């Protein structure tokens, strides 16, 4: 227990320190992953107390640049959005690689493609399945939110399983309240992560979004990458875009944050891609973490 | 927003990483305190997401070695136990001072005396007032805990305001459940921080302790220094020791921690002192924090 490894804590979806969503990155590149117990990684994620802590390893998939394992204080995740961007940002700083346009991240969900452009990182969704919800469950989810839902909620399976729906506009989304106890029960019964609610700004291609996962111990996530992916997939389902569409998302205002997300739905050679990105800033650098 | 200051994250009340209670220390020694907004310090404490984040400054009281300001994600505190030990530990490492026996910490509650002995740090309680509780409120607090209280609860004002009581033994304390919703209401109504419940091990001078502050956003604190101070003060009130008494406290087992606290009640020249200590270990070292 006397070895140390490099450590960073990165703010994601912002260029202003403390206004985004933090993720802790423990750089285990020089350690043999098989020598580290799962329980140790879980204990560290409990101890940092952040929504996610990630562990960076050498890739085992030769197509990938690095491997990441993502932990909440409760469990290991297959994939998560803001930890993917924060870990890629940290990987680029740790490795000193410059002028790179594409990075491939190995994680439990598979290889995730990341693009670097104009100081912004974005990832392409690997899993973007949608599943309709029974009318009984739809009614229950509707009761969890004080504002009327203006679209039918759908389940988007993007790693986390988010139930997504729209409300009237951005202001309605910002102002609405949530019945956390009811949502905890409904999400647990349905086996989902929680709800993503968004409302469009009247005069621009921009949405106000909020993410709730009380059953997973996160009442409201300040800025949520997988939630943005779920929203993009949902908008394609509802609006049936037949060409590429870009939009912005603001999130976290109710929690004192100012998260800024860039989303893109690309149509290319018959296939549709979903891309979620934003800026990152390393707030804690050069840390040495005792592991 | 481009300056950086030294940063550590210290585990308190343990010598085993991740088994104690973490505190983040932002070393602002070289900054002019008047140039840093209260809102910036509060934003940082929200962002780290720890129960406490501390900011180390040059002392303004010439008797003291350093000044600390202590923030939860919700507010600034006059005093807190584990952040005091963690900050003193970090101060000693930052300053490189060795072979020191006494350190004086300036904080909003006044000058706190710390003693270093056998690799353990301890602080002496500055404020240790006790106040009896009305029978109506006593009944309400009693209902918050599933195990019967075997002593009358008393309010100990030690910085935080803890309502303290004993249950039958250590096992009862470990196993009991809490009605968080009720406790949140009762604590808010009474203007207190929460409850400290302890039970004695049958054959040793050791207590199992648990600390609950749901109204302050901390459902159960893993290892609580001010709670230990409140317990020591309470035991003096209940047991009327007429000479010095030392005891140990274990805490955090229900949360996967193994906190170890050393407590001492000293009688000297007619005055009674309360001392709370334990080991600390810096898990994140050499960090550079963007402030």
UniProtKB/TrEMBL annotation, chains A, B:
Top-rank taxon: Eukaryota
Active-site residues annotated for this sequence: 52
Cellular component annotations (GO), alphabetically ordered: cytoplasm
Organism: Lachancea meyersii CBS 8951
UniProt xrefs under InterPro entries: Phenazine_PhzF-like (IPR003719)
GO MF assignments: isomerase activity
Protein name in UniProt: LAME_0H03884g1_1
């Amino acid at each position: 227990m006397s070895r140390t490894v490099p450590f960073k804590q990165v703010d994601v979806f912002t260029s202003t320190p403390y206004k985004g969503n933090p993720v802790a990155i423990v750089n285990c590149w020089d350690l043999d992953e098989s020598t580290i117990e799962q329980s140790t990684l879980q204990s560290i994620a409990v101890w940092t107390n952040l929504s996610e802590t990630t562990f960076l390893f050498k890739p085992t998939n030769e197509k990938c640049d690095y491997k990441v394992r993502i932990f909440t204080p409760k469990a290991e995740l297959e994939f998560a959005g803001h930890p993917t961007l924060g870990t890629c940002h940290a990987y680029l700083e740790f490795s000193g690689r410059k002028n790179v346009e594409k990075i491939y991240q190995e994680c439990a969900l598979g290889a995730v493609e990341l693009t670097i452009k104009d100081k912004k990182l974005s990832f392409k969704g690997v899993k973007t399945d949608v599943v309709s919800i029974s009318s009984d469950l739809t009614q229950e989810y509707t009761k969890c939110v004080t504002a009327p839902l203006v679209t039918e909620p759908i389940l988007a399976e993007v790693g986390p399983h988010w139930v997504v729906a729209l409300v009237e506009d951005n202001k309605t989304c910002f102002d609405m309240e949530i019945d956390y106890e009811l949502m905890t029960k409904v999400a647990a019964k349905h086996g989902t992560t929680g709800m993503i609610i968004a409302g469009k700004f009247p005069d621009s291609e921009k949405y106000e979004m909020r993410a709730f996962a009380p059953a997973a111990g996160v009442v409201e996530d300040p800025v949520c990458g997988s939630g943005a992916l779920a929203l993009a997939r949902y908008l394609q389902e509802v609006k049936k875009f037949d060409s590429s569409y870009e939009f912005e998302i603001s999130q976290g205002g109710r929690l004192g944050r100012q998260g800024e997300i860039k989303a893109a739905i690309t149509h290319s050679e018959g296939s549709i891609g979903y891309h979620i990105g934003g800026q990152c800033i390393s707030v804690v650098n050069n840390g040495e973490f005792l592991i």
